[in-house]
Specification:
Structural class: mainly alpha
Helix content: over 70%
Number of helices: 11
Strand order of the largest sheet: 1-2
Shape: globular
């Protein structure tokens, strides 16, 4: 079994358990106030395993599964099966944790702020895929097909804009940071991914024969 499927399974189990257990939900969610006051930094990771509802869970895990399988294969091919799985899982958890830092810094004195979901980690995995396969086609809103590298640029622009201008209870800061952290960690851990990206952008663009 792959690390991707294991993560999906654990996330689904923890999320379903927390749907009907408010105490568990509150213990695991991202709460900058609790993290700052009580040093409960474990929440930076556990918040990625709880979700607001079934649709939130499904969307995150569907996207993670679709791109996680490919990204995990990059690590297993580079490091071997078991080490690659462990490194991939560590990268995913690190992205989730680090992507929570902006909201921690912004809201550590606001007791009412809380957040849940794996979106930061999912964004990071998606952007590792984009770095590795920039000309693959991705769908804006799941409908309009565009090259992955263009999708990534639009994604970063929108999340940066929305974080400053839109109040919709969506963690745009977390999405933006997760994407950047994913790229940074991929550069550090996957040999040749930057040169491969540059080569594909410069020589393998779809309109060059």
């Amino acid at each position: 079994m792959s690390a991707t499927l294991i993560i999906v399974g654990i996330t689904a189990i923890v999320s379903f358990l927390s749907f009907n257990n408010e105490r568990l939900f509150n213990q695991l969610m991202h709460s900058p106030y609790s993290e700052y006051k009580y040093k409960e930094y474990y929440r930076w990771i556990t918040s990625g395993f709880v979700h607001g509802d079934i649709m939130h869970l499904f969307i995150n895990m569907f996207v993670f599964h679709e791109f996680g399988r490919f990204v995990e294969s990059l690590y297993t091919s580079s490091y071997g099966q078991l080490p690659g799985m462990l490194i991939f899982a560590t990268i995913y958890l690190a992205i989730i944790a680090i992507s929570n830092i902006p909201t921690y810094q912004k809201h550590q004195n606001w007791q009412g702020y809380r957040a849940v979901g794996a979106s930061g980690g999912v964004a990071g995995i998606l952007f590792i895929f984009i770095l590795a396969r920039p000309w693959s086609m991705l769908g804006i809103m799941g409908i309009i097909p565009v090259p992955a590298v263009i999708f990534g640029g639009l994604y970063l622009w929108y999340e940066s804009y929305a974080a400053k201008n839109i109040s919709d209870n969506i963690g745009h800061d977390t999405h933006f940071m997760g994407a950047l952290v994913g790229v940074g960690l991929a550069i550090l851990t996957i040999k040749g991914i930057v040169s491969g990206f540059i080569d594909q952008i410069g020589h393998n663009a779809p309109w060059i024969s």
